[in-house]
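Q: Here's a chain of 371 amino acids. Please give me its 3D structure as tokens.
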Amino acid sequence: NKRLPVPKLIESVFMQRDSLSANRWNSVGLKSGDKIILKDNIKAILIRKLKTDLDFAQHVLIKHSDGNREDTVNLANNWTYNSDDGNPVMVIDAVNFRNSGDYEILFQNVANEYKGFQKQAPVSVLKFTVVSPVAFSFKQILFISLVILFFAATVIFAIVRSNKHKLSKLDLQKESVKNELNTVRSQLNPHFVFNALSGIQNLMNNNQIEYANNYLSKFANLTRQILDDRELITIEDEVKLLQDYLSMEQLRFQFTVEFNVDQAENFKYTEIPTMLLQPFVENAVKHGVASLGGNGHIAVSLFKEKENIVLIVTDNGKGFERNDKTKGLGLKLSEKRIALLNMNYESCPIVLNIELLAGTVVRITLTNWLV
């Protein structure tokens, strides 16, 4: 009663077809305890065992259990010896493990067919579990699709509603800013008119009737432009407005004026906020050169600097105190107006800088205005 050699598994792998070439095969290692999702490209399991002199007496069994029932298939002893190391190999077709459940591969020594050998129980060499791919019925797919569509529609509706609310809020904010800007401008205009009328009165009091008439004529022309409710004005028109104003004031104070305007093509047609420089030019006259007579000088510069537009007003007067309540109304209104404009033009803010040196230098930078 001799014992047959104890079978020993050396290697077990899945054989699957290459996804890029139907003529190529890949092998994926398989070990006990593995859980696999069976795909169409998996065609077989290859097992290789240690060679013995009695391989013909060792059969391969595959046991399947799905929790409800258990069955075992004898795959016989179809060993081949075409491996590199000469150990026997068997290919188990995927048809034998196509269903989901637990699988066990066993080696069975068939001793009862040969005299003098003991009968032995099967030896387990490999256990693995096959998990079926998730499959949905048409009704399940339809239900899931409807749930996804409903969720997507709800999200889209919420986003659209939120955006409408934001846009509505933004429109209200812009409208509020616009109304406040109009209010500031309506305060600036009387400020200008009051200064102009004071100039006419001064000429009349000094019996300078011809100058007063000339001044009044220029003032009437200037008033028509100022009362125009445009938010933006071309640089060309802004320069003309400033020239008219300064030529009008020169009738009273005899100061000199210098304009430096960038001559680049299309620059003069660029639009900027209406009367942005006007209040600062008025300050240059009233608080800067008015007391200097013919020695007074005002320079106005408008030019581009990369993507920015730069506006500068310079005078050679004694300057003024920004905190002086009697002198700062126009300046304060202008600062407020610039702050409001920046709420409307967030991507191209307007920067105001005032330097009080030997005179006053007002620099306004319209950032990224030429982008």
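Q: Can you summarize the key feature?
A: The two ends are 100 Å apart (CA to CA).
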